Amino acid sequence: MTLLNTRVNLEKHDDLYELIVDLNSGLTEAESRKANAKLVLLLANHIGDPDIFREAIACAKPRRTAKLQSTPDADPR
Amino acid sequence: MNRSSIRPYCVKQVSPPPQNENRARHHAFVIVGSGPVGLVTALEMARKGHQVTLVSAFDFIPHGSKAICFAKQPLDIFNRLGIGESVLRRGVSWNVGKLFWQDQRDAIYQFDMLPVKDQKSPAFINLQQYYLEEILVDALEAMENVDLRWGHKVTDINFGECGAALNISTTQGDYELTTDFVIACDGSKSTIRTQLKLNFEGRVFEDNFLIADIRFSGRDAQDRAPERWFWFDPPFCPGGTALLHKQPDQVWRCDFQLGANIDRDEAIKPDNVEPLITGMFGDNTEFEKVWYSVYTFQCRRMERFVHGPVIFAGDSAHLVSPFGARGANSGIADAENLAWKLDFVLREKAPLSLLETFNYERVMAADENILNSSRSTDFMSPINDASRAYRDAVLELASEHEFARPFINSGRLSTATPYHESPLSTADRDEWRAGPPPGYPCLDAPLEKHRHYDWLLGALGDDFKVVHFGDEPPNTELECVLVPSDSEAADRYGTNGGGTYLVRPDQIVAARWKTAIEQDIIEAHLKAIGA
After folding, report:
1. Is the separation of the CB atoms in B86 and B135 below 8 Å?
2. Do B393 and A38 touch (CB under 8 A)?
3. What is the spatial distance between Cα B259 and Cα B234, in angstroms, rounded to a whole number?
4. Rounded CA separation B400/B405 (Å)
């Protein structure tokens, strides 16, 4: 049973979409990355439940059909 | 035999090789290495009445700038070993850490490493490693059953029919030593690990850090509060981090992150160090150099710490980055975990398999320490743009918003590792709302009415104990500590309604019950010694 709600949960989608995209307008790539990171952290804290967050991260992860790509931040051991 | 690149703090005489019967004697165990881990193991075993032989390639206690922050678990261990007072007197106690960001004058976050007050030991005591080694060596030299062999270098190790044979080289001749067990506390470049061709896998970090130990002079011999201060991206070290600790002798440890590709020789030149110090403390600060050096670090561990007759402890077994003070502290915890088990096995009070639980429990601890110190390092030195974006996002948010502050990771400071699902633990059968569960270290508490002890951990000592909260303890052959059920200790242990804990010699909880009977204790005790 999933905790993350992926059914329609709000209205005025275009308004919200514009807000999110506009967060990044006029920003350099680095500034944009930081602003999005802040947004993620703020909302993560607001949601509070780490299990919901894990499900969201699983949905957000890219699906790769090619061979597994290793990422720089590999297992510390 | 002096390693020419290492400056001695205290020179010892090279010990002559053993003669006659002593030469051929087969040992029960030999400790290799005279750092904190070897010395603590030696003192533990000596106090338990064993004949202790320790060999060290050094004929001196080295000077230098190594471990300084000793955490509560080791401090409690030092109390049990009878050196707690010396460490407390000599060292600088601290509990509070503060985090600073960029040029903001006020700390953006503050943490207290001793949230449960009223315990005998503080959260941390800062003490130069050579002072600790000197205190340990003094304690060992006062004991008759201890043979410290200085300038005895292990050159080779072979497994024999019973145990191991060590080839040892000294300036006065070489000899072979046979032993049932070798306790390899010979550090990150362990000869024994290398000779046995055992893996030591992990991760190397590229960033260089400058250690500058200084002493203020003139008008600047100020008395600042002994707090750990940490900076992210300060004006004097832009894009990097800095750390400040107080040490004894009015020495301050300053640590600066210099980045990956630097000229190490240039970095330690006084002209290059001075702006960092004056940046940290103010222009015109008067100070003198005590020690400057540049270091990088690694996180590694051996796959197993127990290899037949050879047991690895401390840096020989596992390495961490220093953020969080988890190196020496976990090594000392290794020694404590090993000593009682080795003692029980040697006295045939427990099966040999008890030593395998050292591997289980301390590998778990090493993994926890490596995970934490790696995470700290990644926060301080983000490895890619995305990671840097999150790190900077946390710092910017933290200056205005409370929620972001606990994300700041400048080093999660060393705490005792609980042993989850240890084979020595008996799982809870009752519901508990407080108190350390099985596998967890005991929490200290004041004892108001005990005849001999002011503190619970002092009363627990270093053997198995049954701690009973209430008036009527269950029957047991083990020594019992009685504590009133209406006490601070009972609050902390969840036993206001009565209860019984079985505690191991290393002060880890083996089992606990709301209502224990004799058979419960017998079974839990057997389980706790691997029988």
Report:
1. yes
2. yes
3. 14
4. 9
Sorted by sequence, the CB contacts under 8 Å of residue B452 that are 6+ apart come out as: B459
Measuring CA to CA, which residue among B514, B416, B512 is closest to residue B466? B512
Q: Output the 3-class SS for B448-476.
A: CCCCCCCEHHHHHCCCCEEEEECCCCCCC
Those residues with Cβ within 8 angstroms of residue B522's Cβ, 6 or more apart along the chain or in another chain: B476
Residue % of chain B over a pLDDT of 90: 79
Q: Are B316 and B188 in contact (CB under 8 A)?
A: yes
| Tokens linked to B293 | 């050096």
Taking an 8 Å cut-off on Cβ atoms, the answer to whether A45 and B403 are in contact is: yes
Contacts of B302 in chain A (CB under 8 A): none
Chain A residue with CA closest to B373: the answer is: A76
Question: What is the distance between the alpha carbons of residues B516 and B250, in angstroms, rounded to a whole number?
Answer: 52
Confidence of residue B221 (pLDDT cuts 50, 70, 90): low
Place of tokens 């940046």: B279
C-alpha–C-alpha distance, residues B382 and B375, integer Å: 10
Give B388's DSSP letter.
H
Contact B203 A76 (CB under 8 A): yes
The reply to whether B407 touches chain A by the CB within 8 Å rule is: yes
CB A74 within 8 A of CB B385: no
Q: Do A77 and B387 touch (CB under 8 A)?
A: no
**Residue A74 in this model has a pLDDT that exceeds 60:** no
User: What Rg do the C-alpha atoms of chain B give, in angstroms?
Assistant: 24
